[in-house]
Design brief:
By secondary structure, this protein is mostly helical. Helices cover about 80% and strands about 0% of the residues. Strands 1-2-3 form a three-stranded antiparallel β-sheet. Strands 4-5 form a two-stranded antiparallel ribbon. A hairpin with a 5-residue loop joins strand 4 and strand 5. The relative contact order is 0.15.
Length: about 475
C-alpha cells in the first residue's frame, strides 16, 4: 500500500522530470537553431567570396551587397532571440526555485492537515470510550437502537405490502372496464358523471360486479400507503432520537476539547488552500514563460527565427548564385575548389542540424502532451480531497503502472483517476465508515423508500462539526 503523500510526491516527481526533459529539448532546439543561423551565415560568406573571385566588379558588388543586407538582418534576429531567451531563462530559473519552495511548503501543509485530522479522530475515539461507560449515553443509544429496529421492521413490512400489492393488483389493472370506472372515481364522492354517462357507467358496473372489486382494490392499495406513512413516522422518531444522541456526543466532545482541534484543522486546511492557490499561480506563470520560449524556438510563420533565416536561405538559393556555384564546380581554380568543398561540407552540416531540429521539436511536443496529462491527474488528485482525508492506495502497483503508461504515451489521466478511486483506502479503515458528517466519511445510507438504512451503532454521529 502506498500512502497519499507518497502518491502525490510520485506525481510531482514525474511532472518535474518531464519539465526537465522539455528544457533539455528546448536547449537542443535553441542550439540547433543558432547553429543553422551560423551555417547559413557561413554559406553567405563563402558565396560572397566566390562572387568576388568569379564575377566582374558591378555584378559582384550587387550580389555581395544584397547578401550582406539579408545576412545582417538574420544575424540581428539571432542576437535578439538570444537576448530574449536569456531573459526568459533567468525568469524561469527564479520562478522554478520559488515553485520548488512552494511545493516543499505544501508537503508541510499537507502533513499539518493530516496531523490535525488524526488528532480529531484520536479525541473522538477517546471520548467514545469514555461515553460507553456513561449511563445517560447508554440510555439514549438504546433509544436510538430501539427506534432503528422499529423503523426497520416497519420499513420491511411496507416493502412487503408494496410487493404484495404489485402482484395482486395485476388482475384488476388488466381489466379495462375496471380501470375505466376506477379512474373516473365511480362509486366514490369524486365521481362527476352526467345523467347519460351515469346510466352507462351503472350498466358497466353491474356487468363487471365493480363495487366488491373496488373495495378489494382500495384495501389492497391503501394498506401499503398506511404502512409507508407509519414507517416514515418511525423514521422521523429515529432522527429525533439521533439528534438527542448527537447533542450528548457533541457536548462530550466539546468538554474534551474538540473545538480547539477543529480550529487547528480548519487553519491547516485553509493554509493548504493558500499554498495550492500560490502553486497554481506560479505554474500558470511558468506555463506562460514556456509558451513564450516555444514561440521563440518555433518554426511557425512569424515566430522565432523562421522569417529571417528563411529569407537568408531564399537569398542563397538565387539562380545567379546557383549558376555561379555550378560554374565554379565545373571549371574550378584552386581557390574555387576550396570554397566549393567548404560549401558542400556546410550544406551537409545544415542537413544534419535540420534533421536534429525537426526531431527535437516533434519530441518536445510529445513530452509536453504527457506532462499535461500528468498535470491533469495531479489536479484531479488535489480536488479529490485524498490529502485531507489521509489514508493510502492498496493498488500501488497498478498506480505505478498507469503513471508509467502515461509517461509512455499510451494511457491518459482518466485511467489514473479510475485506478486511484478503486484503490483508495481512507485513514482508520473500517472506523471511517462509521463517521457521520465529518472529514472521515458518512454513517449509514439511504433506503429505496428514501429513509435511512439502519445499521448497528459503532461510532459517533457527530464528527465535530465538519
Amino acid at each position: 500500500m502506498i500512502s497519499v503523500a507518497e502518491t502525490s510526491s510520485s506525481l510531482d516527481r514525474a511532472i518535474r522530470a518531464l519539465r526537465e526533459d522539455e528544457q533539455r529539448l528546448a536547449s537542443v532546439i535553441e542550439a540547433s537553431a543558432a547553429e543553422i543561423a551560423r551555417l547559413r551565415a557561413a554559406q553567405a560568406d563563402l558565396l560572397k567570396a566566390l562572387a568576388r573571385i568569379r564575377l566582374d566588379a558591378l555584378q559582384k558588388d550587387q550580389i555581395v551587397g544584397e547578401l550582406d543586407d539579408v545576412e545582417r538582418r538574420a544575424l540581428a534576429a539571432v542576437r535578439e532571440q538570444e537576448q530574449k531567451l536569456a531573459s526568459l531563462a533567468t525568469r524561469r530559473e527564479a520562478l522554478s526555485l520559488e515553485l520548488s519552495a512552494a511545493r516543499e511548503g505544501r508537503t508541510t501543509s499537507v502533513q499539518r492537515v493530516s496531523d490535525a485530522a488524526e488528532a480529531i479522530e484520536a479525541l473522538e475515539e477517546a471520548t467514545l470510550a469514555r461515553l460507553a461507560e456513561d449511563v445517560g449515553w447508554q440510555r439514549q443509544a438504546a433509544r436510538v437502537a430501539g427506534a432503528e429496529a422499529r423503523a426497520l421492521a416497519a420499513d420491511s413490512k411496507a416493502s412487503e405490502a408494496e410487493a404484495d400489492r404489485d402482484e395482486k393488483a395485476k388482475p384488476y389493472l388488466e381489466d379495462p372496464l375496471f380501470v375505466y370506472l376506477w379512474e373516473r372515481g365511480y362509486g366514490t364522492p369524486a365521481y362527476r358523471g352526467g345523467r347519460i354517462a351515469r346510466i352507462g357507467d351503472d350498466y358497466v358496473a353491474r356487468v363487471v360486479n365493480y363495487e366488491p372489486a373496488r373495495q378489494n382494490y382500495f384495501t389492497l392499495t391503501e394498506i401499503p400507503k398506511r404502512l409507508g406513512e407509519h414507517a416514515d413516522r418511525l423514521e422521523a422518531q429515529v432522527e429525533e432520537e439521533e439528534e438527542k444522541l448527537h447533542a450528548l456526543e457533541r457536548a462530550a466532545l466539546e468538554k474534551d476539547g474538540i473545538e480547539e482541534r477543529e480550529r487547528l484543522y480548519r487553519e491547516a486546511e485553509e493554509a493548504l488552500k493558500v499554498v495550492d492557490r500560490r502553486i497554481v499561480d506560479l505554474e500558470r506563470e511558468l506555463a506562460d514563460l514556456e509558451k513564450q520560449q516555444a514561440a521563440l524556438l518555433g518554426n511557425a510563420e512569424g515566430q522565432g527565427l523562421s522569417g529571417p533565416l528563411d529569407e537568408l536561405a531564399a537569398a542563397l538559393r538565387r539562380e545567379d548564385l546557383q549558376s555561379l556555384l555550378r560554374e565554379a564546380a565545373q571549371t574550378p581554380t584552386p581557390e574555387d575548389e576550396r570554397i566549393v568543398r567548404r560549401l558542400q561540407e556546410t550544406d551537409a552540416a545544415l542537413g544534419e542540424q535540420a534533421q536534429q531540429l525537426q526531431e527535437a521539436r516533434a519530441t518536445v511536443v510529445e513530452v509536453a502532451r504527457k506532462r499535461v496529462e500528468l498535470e491533469r491527474s495531479r489536479e484531479d488528485f488535489r480536488r479529490s480531497g485524498y490529502e485531507r482525508q489521509g489514508g493510502g492506495f492498496s493498488n500501488d502497483k497498478l498506480i505505478g503502472d498507469v503513471i508509467g503508461g502515461i509517461l509512455g504515451g499510451v494511457l491518459s489521466s482518466r485511467a489514473l483517476r479510475d485506478a486511484m478511486r478503486s484503490g483508495y483506502r481512507p485513514r482508520g479503515g473500517s472506523r471511517s465508515s462509521r463517521r457521520s458528517g465529518n472529514i472521515f466519511g458518512g454513517f449509514g445510507g439511504r433506503s429505496a423508500r428514501g429513509g435511512s438504512r439502519r445499521s448497528s451503532r459503532g461510532g459517533f454521529r457527530t464528527g465535530g462539526g465538519f
